[in-house]
Design a protein that fits this description.
Largest sheet: 11 strands, mixed
Keywords: Transferase
Oligomer: single chain
Protein name: Glycosyltransferase involved in cell wall biosynthesis
Strand content: 25-35%
CATH architecture of the largest domain: Alpha-Beta Complex
GO molecular function, one term: hexosyltransferase activity
Length: 655
């Protein structure tokens, strides 16, 4: 075996470690050397604990990502009886990264709980972080999470998790948070252990992994940690943890039975019992229980329920009923969506639960058949919808499902008003017709500035499903032209790459099509350049309130000068620029409009034949030269300004 392995038998635990001493020393010498090394080493910021079992193809990527972290860290790798060469590779890393990588070898335990607990027993850092051997960290992950923890005295820091062919949590990573509470955030939605934990908290409260569990042991650990964490922080602006699916499907979580619904709920009950023993009855406990009911219990009455046989269905329903009897308070019930409330009411009716599962898992076919503006500036949306129930085991006996209620819903993108999973800002518009042909009219004047995504709310037997609209549409449908309504521009568009319908109110993500074209230019008293022209946005003229000012921008320095604009009927405008106020340089002309969102700027177009001729004049001993011109190609108005003083004239002559 390559590398130096130092055997240290731990009181019947069968552990041996490598990477703690120099080659060639006897046991006593090695122990003294290691003690001196530890005494000379500065405090360790983070202990990274990595459980390993037969992960040889992934170890280099994982360990390299840990070694490049720019914090004072130690890497404790616990080999859980690997037989694929992982143990030998780990000892090689320990030999070449002495004092940083430590390896503990165990006999096979079967799960990640015991290796992680052993790693905790060896940890010396102020914080601990758990990383699976087939995953890896972003290069700045620990640095950013540690900085967040140091600023806030955090007990836990959640770093953004991204999935590679695996689902990753999203709701808690919408923005950075220096300090959040369990009651006013959705951090409890994430119960994986891939977080930064203050080790003093972990040790004080004896927080450990349940070694009897093959899956879900981290749920137990993290639930316990949340119960004692006084300060929780979130790093959301950097991809900290990369969650990877093994191509061969060999990890425990990728095994077919890893999410057996009955076993999973029995495991979850242990975590719930732990949580309720620490959190008093009330709003906070209801908030945390709501997460377990939505994500752990009632979710198993959906697709997993259809996939199960009759006996397993009865067991699932019984486990959910037991959870409801023990912990379903009125406060938890209020936090459930309509379909979950329906499931709770039907726990004694297996056939009804099956039908609800069919409704929830049904494929909703929808097609956009019409999209245009009506004469009163309403956006008309027409389409059709059908539900297709798919049974996981057989297509025989599928129930007929018909939408018995429809609404058009516009949801403000990024407009979460709350923190409990985020209640989005929505506007609901009634629909005429039925699933075979519906029509809705969007009153744009009721929408605030921002990007609104268009959904169809489909109701079937009291169960509502919210689906995006527009990806499937008739070939004849084109994107309607933008409209300026009450001074605000509304731009319907289809998203990329999915092609769903959205409405940009104010011009946030869609470029506002507009034109500013001069009809006349002339010099007047005071060396003022008078510009007359016409503005259009889409096919119409904006109102006078929309026009803000004329902007002259110096091409190389970025300096700007604004001048007032007079706006008349039909989009006509006039501006008078005292060009003597512009410094030397090349100045480009823009017209800036306020259309309800970010300022919209349009280059001023000018046919070359109407551009006023150059003008030169003296002011004292300074000669000023101004040359308006239309740029080549697109014919946009620009002006070259030059000044000449006696000194500059002398310099020119001497050259």
């Amino acid at each position: 075996m390559t590398g130096t392995i130092i055997q240290a038998v731990r009181a019947g635990r069968g552990e041996r470690t490598s990477g703690e001493g120099p080659p060639g020393d006897e046991a006593v010498g090695r122990g003294r050397w290691a003690a001196r090394e530890e005494a000379q080493r500065p405090d360790i910021d983070v202990s990274v604990i990595v459980p390993v079992h037969n992960c040889r193809p992934y170890l280099d990527r994982c360990l390299t990502s840990l070694l490049v972290q720019r914090v004072n860290r130690e890497i404790i790798v616990v080999d859980d009886g690997s037989t694929d060469g992982s143990a030998e590779l780990l000892d090689l890393y320990a030999a070449h990264h002495r004092g940083v990588v430590r390896v503990v070898h165990l006999e096979r335990s079967g799960g990640a709980g015991r290796p992680r607990n052993v790693g905790l027993a060896h940890a010396r850092g102020r914080y601990v972080f758990f990383c699976d051997a087939d995953d890896y960290l972003g290069p700045e992950a620990l640095e950013r999470m540690l900085a967040m923890a140091e600023r806030n005295g955090s007990d836990m820091v959640l770093g953004k998790i991204v999935g590679h062919d695996r689902r990753a949590p999203v709701s808690m990573f919408r923005e950075n948070a220096e300090r959040v509470t369990l009651a006013e955030s959705c951090v409890y939605n994430s119960l994986s252990c891939f977080k930064l934990f203050r080790r003093e908290m972990v040790e004080r409260y004896g927080i450990r992994f349940d070694e009897t569990l093959l899956v879900g042991e981290d749920v137990f650990f993290t639930t316990h940690a949340y119960c004692h964490a006084e300060v929780i922080s979130v790093v959301a602006d950097y991809d900290c943890y990369h969650l990877v699916a093994r191509p061969d499907g060999s990890s425990i979580m990728q095994q077919p039975g890893s999410r057996d619904p009955v076993a999973w709920m029995r495991m979850i009950k242990k975590s719930v019992e732990l949580m309720v023993s620490h959190v008093r009855p009330g709003a906070l406990r209801d908030h945390l229980l709501g997460r377990h009911f939505r994500m752990d219990a009632l979710s198993n009455l959906g697709r997993p329920f259809l996939d199960a046989g009759d006996e397993t269905r009865r067991l699932i329903a019984a486990e959910v009923a037991d959870m409801c009897e023990r912990w379903l308070t009125d406060g938890v019930r209020e936090r459930l969506n309509p379909i979950d409330r329906g499931r709770v009411a039907a726990l004694q009716d297996i056939d009804r639960l099956v039908r609800l599962a069919h409704i929830e898992s049904a494929v909703i076919h929808r097609r956009l058949t019409g999209l245009h503006w009506d004469p009163r500036d309403g956006l008309v949306v027409a389409g059709l919808v059908a539900l297709d129930a798919l049974d996981a085991l057989s297509r025989d006996g599928r129930p007929d499902l018909v939408a018995d209620g429809l609404d058009l819903v516009l949801r403000l993108r990024g407009g979460n008003a709350g923190s409990d999973g985020g209640r989005p800002v929505e506007r609901v518009f009634p629909v005429s017709g039925d699933h075979e042909g519906f029509t809705a009219v969007v009153d744009v004047t009721t929408l605030s500035s921002g990007v609104w995504d268009v959904y169809l709310n489909v109701e079937c037997e009291g169960v509502t499903r919210l689906v995006r609209l527009g990806a499937e549409r008739d070939e004849r449908i084109a994107r309607p032209a933008p409209r300026v309504i009450d001074g605000v521009v509304a731009l319907p568009y289809f998203t990329r790459p999915h092609g769903n319908l959205s409405l940009d109110v104010g011009g946030y993500v869609v470029s506002v099509p507009g034109s500013v074209r001069l009809t006349r230019t002339r010099w007047t008293i005071g060396h003022r350049l008078v510009l007359d022209g016409r503005i259009s946005v889409g096919s119409a003229a904006p109102g006078a309130r929309a026009v803000r000012h004329l902007v002259w921008r110096e091409r190389w320095s970025g300096r700007e000068r604004r001048e007032p604009v007079e706006v008349g009927e039909g989009g006509e405008f006039a501006a008078r620029q005292a060009l003597g106020r512009l410094g030397p340089g090349t100045w480009d002309a823009y017209l800036e409009l306020d259309l309800g969102g970010p300022p919209a700027r349009f280059r001023v177009e000018a046919p070359a034949e109407i551009v006023a001729p150059p003008r030169t004049w003296w002011r004292g001993l300074v000669r000023r030269s101004v040359r308006p011109y239309a740029t080549a190609g697109k014919g946009r108005l620009s002006t070259v300004v030059r000044t000449f003083t006696p000194r500059s004239l002398v310099r020119r002559v001497l050259r």
